[in-house]
C-alpha cells in the first residue's frame, strides 16, 4: 500500500520560503546578526550555526498552509535554537509569518487557542524579566515576545474572522438568490395554473356548446334544426372570442394604463343559467348568497357553477339540472346536480378532467372543500358537485 502523498505547497509559499532563505543568506554574508557573540545567551557563537535555524524556518515557511500546526511547532523549536546563536533577522520575520498562517489556515480550535497562549506567554515573559532584573529595560523582553508571537496571532485571528464573515455573507447571498429563484419558479407555476384555469373556464363552455350543436346539425337532416343549431354556434363563438380577446388583452398589457377587466360575480349567475338553457339544459337556479361576499369567493363560486354547467352539457343524461347556493356557518355552500347515466341521446364531448381539477384547486386556494361524484337520490342516480368556500379565509386572503 503506497503512502499518501503530501499536498503540494502553494506557489506563493514556495516563493516566500525561497525569498526568506536567500534574504537570510544575504544578511549572513554581510555578517549582520541580531546578537553579539559575547552575550551570555549565545551558546553557539560564530556565523555558521545561524544557518541551521534559517534553513529549518524556511522549510516551515514552505509548509505554512499545507501543515500549519506542524509548521508552527517546528518553527517554535527552531526559534529557541536561534536564540542560542547569534541570530538572523529573517528567521524572526519568517517565524511571525508562520505564526500568522497557523491561526489563519489552521483548525478553528487552533485559531481560538493560539492568541490566548501567546498573550499569556507575553505577559509571563514581561513579569518574569522584570522580576529578574528589576529595571525598566527588562519590559522590552516582554514586548519582543509579544511582537514575535501575540501580534501575528492576533492579526491572523482578525483576518480569519473577516474571511469567515465574508464567506458566511456569500453563502447567505447564495441562499437568498436560491430562495428568490424558487419563489419566482413557484410564482410562475402558480400563475400558469391560474391562467390555465381561467382559460379553461372561460372558453370550455362555449366550445362544448359549439361541438354539441355542430354534431347535432350534421346528424339531423332538418333545415330548421340546423338553422337553430347554427345560431347557437354563432352566439357561442362570438362570446368565446370576446372572452378570449379580454384574456389576451390582460396578458399583453404591461403598461397599466388600461383598466382591468372586472371579474365575474354572482350577479352574473342569471345570465350564465340563461346561456345554459339556450344550449339545451333544463336548469333551475336557487341562489341566496347574501351580501358582502369577498371577491375571491364570488369569482370561485361563479367559475365552479360555470364549469359544472359545462360538464352537465357535455356528459349529463336528460333531465333537470339544479344549481343551489346558500350562505351557512360562515361559508358559501355550492351544490350543482345533474342526471347521471348512460342513456344520453345527444352527442357527447370527450372530457380531459381539467375542469374537476380546476374546481378543486379554486376551493383549495380558499381553504375550502370540494367533492364531485355520483350520488343516490330519490329521483335516481345523480352527479353532484359540492363545494364549501369559507368566507373568513377569503377575507384574510383578499386583505
Describe the structure.
The protein is an alpha+beta fold. Helices cover 63% and strands 11% of the residues. The protein has a 5-stranded mixed beta sheet. β1 (282-288), α9 (295-315) and β2 (320-328) form a beta-alpha-beta unit. α9 (295-315) packs antiparallel against α10 (354-365). The two termini are 71 Å apart.
Rg calculated over all Cα atoms:
44 Å
The biggest beta sheet, please?
Answer: 5 strands, mixed
Shape assignment = rod-shaped
Mean pLDDT, to the nearest integer, reads: 83
- Proportion of strand residues: 5-15%
Helix share bin = 55-70%
Q: What separation lies between the terminal Cα atoms?
A: 71 Å
Strand order of the largest sheet: 1-2-3-5-4
Give the ordered list of helices and strands. HHHHHHHHEHEEHEEH
Low-pLDDT residue spans: none
Number of helices: 11
Question: Count the strands?
Answer: 5
**SSE-based structural type:** alpha+beta
Task: Please sum up the structure shown.
The protein has helices at 11-30, 51-62, 68-83, 89-105, 108-133, 139-219, 223-252, 269-278, 295-315, 354-365, 391-398; strands at residues 282-288, 320-328, 331-339, 369-377, 380-390. It is α+β, with helices and mostly antiparallel strands and 399 residues long.
Amino acid at each position: 500500500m503506497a503512502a499518501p502523498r503530501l499536498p503540494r505547497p502553494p506557489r506563493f509559499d514556495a516563493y516566500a520560503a525561497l525569498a526568506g532563505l536567500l534574504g537570510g543568506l544575504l544578511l549572513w554574508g554581510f555578517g549582520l546578526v541580531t546578537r553579539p557573540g559575547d552575550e551570555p545567551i549565545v551558546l553557539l557563537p560564530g556565523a555558521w550555526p545561524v544557518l541551521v535555524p534559517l534553513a529549518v524556518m524556511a522549510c516551515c515557511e514552505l509548509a505554512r498552509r499545507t501543515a500549519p500546526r506542524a509548521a508552527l511547532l517546528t518553527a517554535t523549536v527552531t526559534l529557541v535554537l536561534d536564540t542560542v546563536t547569534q541570530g538572523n533577522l529573517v528567521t524572526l520575520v519568517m517565524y511571525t509569518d508562520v505564526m500568522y498562517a497557523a491561526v489563519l489556515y489552521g483548525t478553528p480550535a487552533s485559531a481560538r487557542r493560539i492568541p490566548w497562549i501567546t498573550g499569556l506567554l507575553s505577559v509571563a515573559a514581561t513579569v518574569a524579566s522584570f522580576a529578574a532584573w528589576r529595571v525598566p529595560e527588562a519590559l522590552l523582553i516582554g514586548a519582543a515576545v509579544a511582537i514575535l508571537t501575540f501580534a501575528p496571532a492576533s492579526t491572523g485571528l482578525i483576518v480569519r474572522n473577516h474571511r469567515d464573515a465574508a464567506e458566511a455573507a456569500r453563502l447567505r447571498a447564495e441562499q437568498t438568490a436560491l430562495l428568490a429563484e424558487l419563489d419566482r419558479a413557484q410564482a410562475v407555476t402558480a400563475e400558469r395554473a391560474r391562467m390555465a384555469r381561467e382559460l379553461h373556464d372561460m372558453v370550455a363552455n362555449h366550445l362544448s356548446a359549439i361541438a354539441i350543436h355542430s354534431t347535432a346539425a350534421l346528424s339531423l337532416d332538418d333545415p330548421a334544426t340546423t338553422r337553430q343549431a347554427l345560431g347557437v354556434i354563432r352566439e357561442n363563438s362570438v362570446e368565446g372570442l370576446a372572452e378570449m380577446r379580454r384574456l389576451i388583452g390582460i396578458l399583453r398589457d404591461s403598461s397599466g394604463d388600461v383598466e382591468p377587466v372586472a371579474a365575474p360575480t354572482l350577479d352574473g349567475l342569471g345570465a350564465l343559467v340563461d346561456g345554459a338553457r339556450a344550449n339545451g339544459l333544463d336548469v333551475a337556479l336557487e341562489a341566496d348568497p347574501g351580501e358582502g361576499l369577498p371577491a375571491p369567493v364570488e369569482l370561485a363560486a361563479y367559475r365552479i357553477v360555470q364549469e359544472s354547467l359545462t360538464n352537465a352539457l357535455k356528459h349529463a343524461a336528460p333531465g333537470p339540472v339544479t344549481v343551489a347556493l346558500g350562505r351557512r356557518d360562515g361559508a358559501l355552500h355550492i351544490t350543482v346536480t345533474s342526471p347521471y347515466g348512460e342513456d344520453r341521446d345527444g352527442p357527447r364531448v370527450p372530457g380531459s378532467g381539467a375542469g374537476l381539477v380546476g374546481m378543486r384547486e379554486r376551493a383549495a386556494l380558499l381553504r375550502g372543500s370540494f367533492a364531485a361524484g355520483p350520488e343516490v337520490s330519490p329521483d335516481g342516480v345523480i352527479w353532484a358537485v359540492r363545494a364549501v368556500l369559507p368566507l373568513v379565509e377569503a377575507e384574510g386572503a383578499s386583505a
